[in-house]
Prior knowledge:
Layout: H1 6-10, H2 13-22, E1 27-28, H3 29-33, H4 40-52, E2 56-61, E3 64-69, H5 74-104
Antiparallel strand pairs: 1-3, 2-3
Amino acid sequence: xxxxDVFSALANPVRRNILxxxxxxxxxxxxxxxxxxVGRPAISEHLQVLRQARLVREEPRGRERxxxxxxxxxxxxxxxxxxxxxxxxxxxxxLGEVLDKEKTR
Length: 105
């Protein structure tokens, strides 16, 4: 089975929500699962995908496993989005020019 890349890991809304929760700091699986309508095994599977995509790292603490966000792979997404940002910036500048012309009429 191929390893999930950052984009496939982010394609799932539950995984994106897990990453948002981990922005606040490391969390145990049971704490993460409490915020979802899915069971702990499903959250563990999502965490495995995020770990394989290197977006989270696992830290054993006694009987619990805590997960930490690792945002470094998100730079790949940022690089990809940059091309679209430039596209929209050009479109917004063009819209601004049209609106300025309309004001002067």
